[in-house]
Amino acid sequence: MKQSLPPALIPRLEPVRLTLQAMADRMQDSLIGGAYSAIAREAGDGAAALFMPDGRLLVQARSLPLLLGSLIPALEAVLKAFPRATMRDGDGYLLNDPFAGGTHLPDLTLVRPIFLNETLIGFAAASLHHQDVGGITPGSIPPHATSIFQEGLRLPPVQSHRDGKLDPALKSVLAANSRTPELLLGDLSSQWSAISGGGRELGQLALREGGHYTALCNALIEQTETLTRQALLSCPDGASDWEDMLDNDGIDDGPVRIRVTLEKRGDRLRIDFTGSSPQTRGPVNAAPAAVLSAALYFMRSLVPDAPNNAGCLQPLDLVLPEGSVVNPRWPAAVNARTGTVKLACNAIIGAWSGIASGTAAAANAGVAAVIAFAGKRANGQDYALTEVVASGAGGHAGGEGTSGISTDISNARNTPVEIVEARTPIRIEQYGFAHGSGGAGRHHGGDGLRRIYALAEGSGTVSYRGERHRHAARGAAGGASGSLSRAWIERNDGRVEILDAKAQFEWQAGDRLHVETAGAGGWGQSEYQH
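^ that's the sequence the OP posted. Answer follows.
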């Protein structure tokens, strides 16, 4: 470690590490357990973390990587807008602007400064996917958006709380811009409760460790940096690239390239997305905060047992060309960035296998289909629900890929059939694996999932954001690619309408939505392959 600890303090490092990790995980449990909307409470679409006073990540929950990495630039944006000297105990700061530290508009990030005896000792932060923040479609994920202004209410960093209370004017603005204000305010309350609880525990830890607290935290960050650099040094130097394609951008009917080059030299790694497509008219653009999540996930995977903090990012150089699909200029639409970030993560892993050959695996399916349902029951009552449908993991040298799982950065949970049917007039007529969709090989790729949704009464709007309808997940070492995703509407009069990877449609009672997510790539040549 760069900073040596007195010998008497070294035995304290591991207990403090474990305590911090438990704190972050309890924050996450509180965040999700207290949430109101199904996308948060059931799918677990939220993340929590604690930070040092200078903004460095101290510890993050073992939760959704898609949001964990984005908390880092979110806090940076808050600190840029609000000097630390102006902050007081009980203050809170809220943002969702993708051009100021956010990802897409439904993800609201809430930050609270933590004080001990009037001294700032850190920050607690939580991000959560809210059911609706306005925009041109229910659920705030319009697949045909061409501007951020069509996607909902956009908040730069603003002070949201004073003395622990949500500002009444801001509360009114938030409620007025959501189709589901009770869910938004309930979920925001859960965020505040989670970060307040985490802050109290952080203060208790700092009090127990006394004057050694800061030194111990710095030592843990340095320990992670050292372990990450050692992991890089153990791998050969070299460069490798990987390319993948989004089916389209939701507006223009052409593929969108995700290209990454990894260059490893000594104890440093450069991840360069030069060569990726220019920013698109449609909403598949990913803000830098979102792409950082993919890079953080990968860097953490190099030494998964290291303390869970900012140290893993110190050896990283991340290049995101301005004006590209991975770093768009304002006012680009960004709500469908999940597929982009998933393929970016896949590409990083694939390129790394060209440097560290022992890590080679077939591509994950790269799909987390996001579906937002909204409408009216037969009695006129409104309903709204967003869920995530998983796919499959790639086969690898050690065995077959797992089926029906959210892979890499998007480890969202399954939304139970009972929740969908309790909160909406939708009935799930079939739910299971899309058998045979994983690529063939010595070790098969994981299968995707199949769901059939039937609207039992009333009418509604559906926003569907899928991927891999045209470009399959690649196999490795001679394994076959996975099968493509499919989605279609079966109307109550028997007509069938095929859906593209990004679609929005109206449906009526008796209509059915069929969704099959893609399979992952297979690994190795099978004796049955020709």
